[in-house]
C-alpha cells in the first residue's frame, strides 16, 4: 500500500512538472513569436543608424537596406559565410559600399567591424560592432 501511494504521488508530481514545463515552453514560444518582428525591425533601424553614421547622408539618396546583396568574399569579410553588402547611391550612381568584416586576431578573440568604402576605394568610416578586448589593453601590451 505504501509503495502504491508513493508511486501515485510520484506520478502526480511528474504530471505537475510536465504541465508546468509545457506552459512555460508555450509562453516562451508565444513571446518569441510576438516579439521577433519587433526585434528584426529594431535591428534594421540599428543598421540604418550605423550606415548614417558611416556615410555622409548628403551623398546618397537611396535606402541602402533595400539595395543590398550577399557576397562570400573571405579575404574582405573574414568569413566563409555570405555577408551583406549595402550599396549607397546618389541619382542611381554608386557612392559607397558598407559591409561587415571580422578578425580573430584581437588580443582577446573576435572583433567585428562595419566598414564603409566609397567608389574610389577611400574608407569613409568604420564602427566596431563587437569585441572582447580589455579596455586600454593596447597600453598594457606595448613593446615600444
TrEMBL record:
Q: Which InterPro entries match?
A: FMN-bd, Ion_transpt_RnfG/RsxG
Q: Does the keyword Electron transport apply?
A: yes
Q: Which UniProt keywords apply?
A: Electron transport, Flavoprotein, FMN, Phosphoprotein, Transport
Q: Which domain of life is it from?
A: Bacteria
> Pfam families in the record, alphabetically?
FMN_bind (PF04205)
Q: Does the keyword Phosphoprotein apply?
A: yes
Q: Which organism is it from?
A: Psychrosphaera algicola
- Where does the FMN-binding domain lie? 106-135
Designated name of the protein? FMN-binding domain-containing protein
Amino acid at each position: 500500500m505504501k509503495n502504491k501511494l508513493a508511486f501515485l504521488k510520484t506520478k502526480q508530481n511528474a504530471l505537475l512538472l510536465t504541465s508546468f514545463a509545457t506552459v512555460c515552453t508555450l509562453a516562451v514560444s508565444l513571446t518569441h513569436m510576438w516579439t521577433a518582428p519587433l526585434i528584426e525591425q529594431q535591428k534594421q533601424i540599428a543598421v540604418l543608424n550605423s550606415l548614417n553614421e558611416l556615410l555622409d547622408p548628403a551623398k546618397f539618396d537611396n535606402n541602402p537596406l533595400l539595395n543590398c546583396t550577399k557576397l562570400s568574399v573571405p579575404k574582405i569579410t573574414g568569413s566563409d559565410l555570405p555577408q551583406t553588402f549595402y550599396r549607397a547611391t546618389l541619382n542611381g550612381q554608386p557612392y559607397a559600399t558598407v559591409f561587415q568584416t571580422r578578425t580573430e586576431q584581437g588580443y582577446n578573440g573576435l572583433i567585428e567591424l562595419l566598414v564603409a568604402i566609397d567608389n574610389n576605394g577611400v574608407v569613409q568610416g568604420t564602427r566596431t560592432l563587437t569585441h572582447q578586448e580589455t579596455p586600454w589593453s593596447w597600453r598594457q601590451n606595448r613593446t615600444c
